[in-house]
Amino acid sequence: MHPREGGRKIFGQPVSRRDFLRRSAITAASIPTASALLAACGKDPSTQDTQDAATLNNPARRDNPITYDINEHNGDLLLEPGLKNEDGPFEIFNWEEYINPRVVGMFEEQYGVQVNITTFSTMVDAVTRLTTREQSYDVIMGLTKDFVGRMVLLDLLRPLQHSYIPNLEANIWPGLGGAPDQPFYDVGSHYTVPYTIYTTGVGYRIDEGPTDHIAMDLSYLEESVPAMDNGYDLLWDPKFKGYSHMLDDYRESLVMAMMRKDPTTDPNTGDPAVINAARDSLVEAIQTVGTKFDVNDYVDMPEGRAYVHGAWSGDLVSVQYYYPSWSSRDQIRYWYPTVDPGVIGSDTIAVLANGKNPVLAHTFLNYMLDFDNACTNFKWNGYAPPQVKLTSPTMLVKGAKDAIPEYAVTPPGLSNCIPQEADFIKGVEQLELKPEVDNLWKDAWEVVQTT
Amino acid sequence: MSENKLPRADRKKARRQRKIRLKEEGAWYPKWYWPKFAIPGIAWLAVLFILPFYAVFAITFGYVNPLSQVTVPVWQPWYWDTTAFKEIAGRVVGKGVPNYAPFFIRTFVYVAIASFMCVVIAYPVAYFVARYGGRRKGLYLMLLIAPFWVSYLMRMLAWGNLLTNDGYVNKILVNLHILSQPYPWLDGKSITVVSGLIYGYIPYMILPLYAGLDRISQSLLEASRDLGANTVRTFIKVTLPLSKQAIIAGMVIVTLPMFGDYYTTALMSGYNNTKMIGSLIDDNLNNNRTGEAATLVLILVVLLIIPMLWYLRSTNSETART
After folding, report:
1. Does any domain span residue A1?
2. Domains held by chain A: number
């Protein structure tokens, strides 16, 4: 399940992230304490954050790497080397179902600590809770790159003492922190280490003929789609009217519409014309194809509710667990651009500033960057780790020549769901936007949602 | 002559005498004796309604921290920024982009139909239990309350599965030749959403109706019969008017949560063409636009005050009459 989703399961049924309970939680969390109220009485509160806004006007890009100065942001919290682990309990702040419980259990056993997991549903939910509540957590998992800068500038993260995390340099792709001058969004890995990698593409069914729920023969897609230069067109194909779903995520879906029109579009563009053209394209899809927006790609496709679906690669690795009992388990494929740049991403783990077990938190980061632990985690959540030992993506694919038997769970037909390091060089990433640009994107998305 | 028509001095005197008399009888209480029993209720309201409601105002007229993207409530009314509120209010009346008017109209139509159907379906059930339940009333009541034992969300998810193209509902309808092919119930159909609302909220209608019907004295019905009215006329002239308050109470109980409902349409459809006001609020929260969501909540509350006032007026006039 992708982190942006924040969905949950009840008795095996996925519930959309539109979980009304968390809404009330977000709103409640927005209410400050009485002391804050009194402190704010003196002047117009909205003017107090103008300085914060200025810091966002230089977001990290590949051609604009950002190095956060440890001394400016919680430098006093940098640990001395060689300290002993604390006794816990160890508090993890994470998305719903984004870490293998077995990996957690192994950590508890190995270090003799109790681990508690608290979940959040969106990055804003996470930031709200971290800034307005007294509750402390040791690490945050699945921290998306577009929020790394904000978290550092808000002094929510503790600078990392690399002597506790030898696996970072030893095991991780150079571009994501294995090299000292990387990654571009946190040069030198001062505050974050990478967690998982994924791409965004199009999932499609390849059923051979009519069944209970597939009324058309889709088998031709198995050959024709991989040859397509622009697989995004599948999502606009009227043939799939009523069975075409896209991701309910304003960045992902608008970017798909942009890439469909022009694969070289900057997915972080601030050009209103490009954003509005993408908006109109999505509106067109709703009107002609009846597009539905959700984040249930890993359920809707195996159950036949969607024949084509904008999808995250990691979700499609997990799709094998959601087929109906009577169905064949190899009916879904994934299209990701092979010639043009595609959308690629990675999530991070960071140590939180107010955690009570900072040494143990560093130990945990090192533990998660261990090859076996990272691959065990992949087996469960479908999102691959950026490990240097994974020299080929097929090492995680069932039946491949170089497959690692204990970790190769990816169905052969979905081997392109495992990103390679080269994909990061060719691909494009959705990164932090300036506030005014972010508003343009959200305005466009609101029109799509109300069409 | 009543006390109010006496001259002022005499009025005071009469009150004093009344007070002395009541004291002698041990039936006099200080002025604030009875009202102070309301203090817990008032405190409850203040903590759980007035303060949160003020928080909605503070968020509505607050601002978004550009760094954390967290909506920051502004508690001092003199700093409130009404720009966003005006913009959203404009969208509600169709003067802005996107246009929220269709969502408001749709919500009112869905809720009106669902509430009406809840009455139509629940009334006979409640009537049966109240009039013919006999010794089994307890059992029937328990069965009526049984749906409450299962989470609303779970019940909707269960229907979601039953209504899929290859679900049992379509299988039965096709096998019975009522449908020639499976009907896409979950593909943005209003009928599915309204049915979901009816199914989800009907227990809340049955209980107040039962309570109201059970209180109607059997002797009144017998009197109607004795005066020559047949069963239908007795129902129309006696039972229905006497159960009016129960119907209104039931309507209020089901319509208020229906107006804020978004998970029924999310689970039973998920398409834009069946979105309700609650869906707009949810979408805005999803987009980190808590202020806009709070504005919609505020507008919805203002709209809901109208039926609430009608309910209060109706209840008061009924109390005065009896």
Report:
1. no
2. 2
Is residue A7 a part of any domain in this protein?
no
Structure tokens at A425: 């060089």
How far apart are alpha carbons B75 and A137 in whole angstroms?
29
In a domain, residue A381? The reply is yes
pTM for the model: 0.80
Q: Which residues of B touch A23 (CB under 8 A)?
A: 281-282, 285, 293
Count of Cβ atoms closer than 10 Å to residue B76 Cβ: 15
Q: Show pLDDT as tens, one digit a residue, over chain B (322 residues).
A: 555 667 777 888 888 888 888 888 888 888 888 888 999 998 998 888 888 889 888 988 888 887 777 788 889 988 888 888 888 888 988 887 889 999 999 999 999 999 999 999 999 999 999 988 888 888 888 888 787 788 888 888 888 888 887 788 988 998 999 988 888 888 889 999 999 999 999 988 999 999 999 988 888 888 988 888 888 899 888 888 999 989 998 998 999 899 989 989 988 888 888 999 999 998 888 887 888 888 999 898 888 888 788 878 877 777 776 6
Contacts of B285 in chain A (CB under 8 A): 23, 26-27
Q: Do A442 and B290 touch (CB under 8 A)?
A: no
Question: By residue range, what is the domain housing residue A282?
Answer: 199-343+431-449
Nearest-5° Cα angle at A300, A295 to A304: 160
Distance of CA A293 to the CA centre of its chain: 17
Of B67, B70, B263, the CB nearest to A30: B70
- DSSP secondary-structure letter at A86? P
The answer to whether position A13 is within a domain reads: no
Residues A153 and A247 in one domain: no
- Among B65, B184, B287, select the one facing A446 at the smallest CB separation: B287
